[in-house]
């Protein structure tokens, strides 16, 4: 980027900020997302006594307009801010990491001399601002509020252009909460004590005290990580792959802890001779979760005589990992030690039941153990008498492999060694090895760490413990653990919910509905009602919609008596659609709507149904259908009709429900009535006016939708004295509708019984007596006697018995297979049942 281009970009970036907010430095970088390299522009901006790093997503490079720059993240330069410029090989040598709180963001810069010079200015400016903040210890970051959500919740063009679907609510919520973690977390100091000791196959004696090793600090550590090697290396133990903890050693460890606090064992993991025990203050137990262990054998046949054991857990918001390892022995085997290191890194994995993590996927890592790296090219006798360890440390194999060759423990740190080599001693003494092998001294026992905000305050060996050929080593650290401030978290949580709501609104299809409550007013039987529902697309995305079922059942999207003109459709931006919703209460729906409204009060708007308007990738819209219903003779029970003392129109729905619930018959039936008044009126009219009319009833039900049905309904409901308002054909249709609208069928005999006995008249009479109530029997026989009269006039009306039973079988029985009911009815039309009917009518 030449100076002209850089100045032009700087001017564009400056337009993103307000008066008093100064852009100090801009730096061109990129990120690798999948297989793509995506341009990023980093800007350091200062306002008053605080500063921040802005990361821009660049949609057009070089950016010319403000629309070319979209704020991806805003990172305050405060006590949680760090920049890690350590590099590796290849492309990794051009990387740097921005650390804020618990979040790390990896960037790369292009291998260009001009950009490299800009990087030096960028890093120098950041480090200066970090230093300024650490000295001042305060800063007003209120000015950043204007930028934290503006670009992040704008309409995502990738979503608008259908390149990517919007993130789901939970994913976006977690992303935003993680992004704002620095606002509700603080770093609290914890004292971590790490110790390692190769005990050379010794069991802990009764007189052994580990206080000189484990209780060396003035203040009690918060967490202990104690690694032992060679606790047992017998052939049986190796072949068995022993993993049971050695409780004798654990007991000694617990006895030797700092006496100023109370501790408990968190977890111990063992593999043959290696054992790692994590001990914590009892007061910390509630802060620790997701604790699990792992082990990797790298020795002979992978039996575990060499390798590593590890423990992982989460403390507050930080994931910690501790590894204890015992690598290959002998001076010349440093390559095998390197391979053991690599294998442990590659194979060790921690699974907490929800997620697996490898060693490097932790925020803070402590690696201890007998790593077995030796001193090379040395005069053994010279080392034994030499006291300036710094001058011979460059001969340490681990120093060579880690620092010079960058072969192992890359990005790990180790404190300065100011103690004697910890191996090899004559057991029981502080004397170097005097055996035939005469091993050269070496710093075999080491402690490394990796992660941000870890400070080592001690790194020592303990000469007083002499039972092994190794000396114990310990390191004490202050580790700053990310901890959540609950009051701040609650505030951020509420703000993030609002942010996610806005994101969803901006980046998901939305349909606008003119009204979500549709009131149909008073509804009556056999009348059509319609309302219009206007839907529109006022968002920037195309909208696919459809009405769906309210649950996962196979039921339809609405009640049977509701019809929707457009069950699904698509609206592009700016378009609208008028959807017609129809209600028609027919004979099948009459009793259903009465049941739905039976608990309502007069004049109350009652939900008749709720429609779910589903928007693909968007939010569902719920539309409530309201209405009242005027009861009619169509849909009431036979018992209710028999108890009416006045015209039905004069009853409220609640009064009819009370009559319907009168199971003890405190309201008497009409004396001597063989059928309800309404059925008698219709059959009487047909008897006097319809017996001779050709094809009075048809299988096709030609008059089913006749508008005269409404007039007949009112005539029946009002007990009108006016002339009958219909024709014989519509009177016959009204009779069929009354039968079909009954909540339960008139004939209550099961289809199974009819299939067996419908061919035998005597059996049919028995079924009527045994399977039907007295009221149903009387009405059934009354209607059959009327049908018998129609049959007698076959010569004039053309109504033979088979046509009659085809018309009446389903309204009377409502079976899936009407043939059984037809055979049943034929038995009565083909035989004389007057005496049988007379006896039934006489019963009370």
UniProtKB/TrEMBL annotation:
One GO biological process term: phosphatidylinositol dephosphorylation
Subcellular location: Cytoplasmic vesicle, Phagosome membrane; Early endosome membrane
Gene3D superfamilies the UniProt entry points to: 2.30.29.110, Endonuclease/exonuclease/phosphatase, Immunoglobulins, Rho GTPase activation protein
Name of the protein: CLUMA_CG012081, isoform A
Keyword line: Cytoplasmic vesicle, Endosome
Gene Ontology, cellular component aspect: early endosome membrane; phagocytic vesicle membrane
Organism in which the protein naturally occurs: Clunio marinus
Annotated GO MF terms: phosphatidylinositol-4,5-bisphosphate 5-phosphatase activity
InterPro entries assigned: Endo/exonu/phosph_ase_sf, Ig-like_fold, INPP5B_PH_dom, IP5, IPPc, OCRL-1_2_ASH, Rho_GTPase_activation_prot, RhoGAP_dom
Residue span(s) of domain Rho-GAP: 657-837
């Amino acid at each position: 980027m030449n100076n002209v281009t850089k100045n032009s970009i700087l001017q564009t970036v400056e337009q993103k900020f307000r008066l008093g907010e100064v852009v100090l430095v801009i730096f061109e970088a990129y990120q690798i997302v999948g297989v793509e390299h995506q341009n990023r522009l980093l800007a350091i901006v200062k306002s008053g006594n605080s500063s921040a790093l802005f990361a821009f997503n660049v949609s057009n490079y070089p950016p010319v307009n403000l629309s070319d720059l979209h704020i991806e993240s805003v990172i305050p330069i405060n006590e949680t801010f760090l920049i890690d410029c350590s590099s590796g090989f290849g492309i990794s040598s051009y990387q740097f990491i921005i650390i804020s709180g618990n979040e790390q963001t990896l960037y790369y810069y292009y291998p260009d001399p001009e950009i490299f010079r800009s990087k030096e200015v960028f890093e120098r400016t950041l480090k200066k601002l970090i230093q300024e903040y650490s000295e001042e210890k305060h800063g007003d970051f209120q000015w950043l509020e204007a930028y934290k959500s503006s670009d992040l919740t704008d309409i995502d063009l990738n979503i608008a252009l259908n390149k990517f679907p919007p993130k789901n609510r939970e994913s976006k919520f977690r992303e935003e909460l993680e992004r704002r973690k620095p606002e509700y977390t603080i770093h609290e100091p914890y004292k971590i004590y790490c110790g390692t000791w190769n005990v050379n196959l010794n069991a802990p004696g009764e007189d052994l005290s580990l206080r000189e090793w484990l209780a060396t600090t003035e203040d009690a550590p918060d967490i202990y990580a104690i690694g032992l090697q060679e606790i047992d290396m017998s052939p049986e133990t190796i072949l068995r792959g022993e993993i049971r903890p050695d409780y004798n050693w654990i007991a000694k460890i617990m006895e030797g802890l700092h006496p100023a606090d109370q501790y408990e064992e968190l977890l111990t993991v063992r593999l043959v001779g290696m054992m790692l025990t994590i001990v914590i203050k009892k007061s910390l137990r509630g802060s620790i979760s997701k604790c699990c262990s792992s082990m990797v054998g790298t020795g002979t046949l992978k039996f575990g005589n060499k390798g590593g054991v590890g423990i992982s857990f989460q403390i507050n918001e930080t994931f910690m990992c501790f590894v204890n390892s015992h690598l290959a022995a002998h001076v010349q085997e440093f390559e095998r030690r390197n391979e053991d290191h690599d294998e442990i890194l590659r194979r060790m994995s921690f699974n907490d039941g929800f997620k697996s993590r490898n060693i490097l996927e932790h925020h803070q890592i402590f690696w201890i153990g007998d790593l077995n790296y030796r001193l090379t090219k040395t005069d053994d006798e010279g080392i034994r008498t030499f006291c300036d360890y710094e001058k011979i440390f460059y001969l340490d194999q681990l120093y060579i492999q880690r620092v010079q060759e960058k072969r192992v423990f890359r990005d790990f740190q180790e404190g300065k060694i100011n103690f004697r080599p910890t191996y090899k001693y004559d057991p029981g003494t502080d004397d170097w090895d005097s055996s035939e092998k005469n091993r050269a001294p070496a710093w075999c026992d080491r402690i490394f760490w990796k992660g941000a905000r870890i400070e080592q305050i001690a790194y020592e060996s303990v000469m007083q413990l002499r039972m092994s050929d190794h000396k114990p080593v310990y390191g004490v650290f202050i580790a700053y653990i990310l901890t959540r401030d609950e009051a701040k978290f609650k505030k951020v949580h509420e703000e993030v919910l609002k942010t996610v709501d806005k994101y969803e609104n901006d980046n998901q299809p939305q349909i606008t509905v003119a009204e979500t409550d549709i009131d149909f007013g008073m509804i009556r039987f056999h009348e059509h009602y319609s309302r219009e529902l206007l839907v529109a697309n006022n968002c920037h995305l195309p909208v696919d919609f459809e009405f769906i079922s309210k649950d996962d059942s196979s039921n339809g999207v609405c009640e049977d008596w509701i019809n929707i003109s457009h069950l699904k459709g698509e609206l592009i931006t700016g378009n609208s659609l008028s959807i017609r919703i129809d209600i028609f209460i027919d004979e099948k729906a009459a009793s259903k709507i009465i049941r739905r409204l039976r608990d309502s009060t007069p004049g109350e708007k009652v939900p008749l149904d709720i429609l779910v308007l589903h928007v693909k990738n968007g939010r569902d819209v719920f539309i409530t259908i309201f209405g009242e219903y005027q009861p009619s003779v169509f849909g009431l029970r036979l018992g209710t009709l028999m108890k009416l003392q006045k015209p039905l129109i004069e009853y409220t729905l609640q009064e009819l429900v009370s009559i319907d619930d009168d199971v003890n018959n405190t309201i008497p039936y009409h004396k001597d009535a063989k059928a309800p008044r309404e059925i008698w009126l219709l059959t009487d009219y047909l008897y006097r006016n319809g017996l001779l009319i050709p094809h009075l009833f048809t299988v096709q039900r030609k008059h089913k939708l006749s508008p005269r049905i409404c007039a007949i309904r009112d005539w029946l409901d009002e007990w009108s004295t006016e002339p009958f308002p219909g024709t014989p054909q519509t009177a016959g249709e009204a009779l069929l509708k009354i039968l079909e609208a009954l909540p339960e069928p008139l004939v209550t005999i099961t289809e199974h019984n009819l299939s067996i006995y419908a061919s035998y008249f005597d059996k049919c009479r028995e079924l009527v007596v045994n399977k039907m109530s007295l009221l149903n029997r009387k009405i059934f026989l009354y209607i059959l006697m009327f049908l018998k009269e129609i049959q007698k006039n076959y010569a004039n009306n053309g109504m033979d018995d088979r046509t009659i039973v085809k018309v009446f079988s389903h309204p009377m029985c409502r079976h899936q297979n009407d043939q059984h009911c037809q055979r049943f009815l034929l038995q009565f039309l083909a035989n004389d049942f007057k005496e049988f009917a007379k006896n039934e009518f006489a019963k009370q």
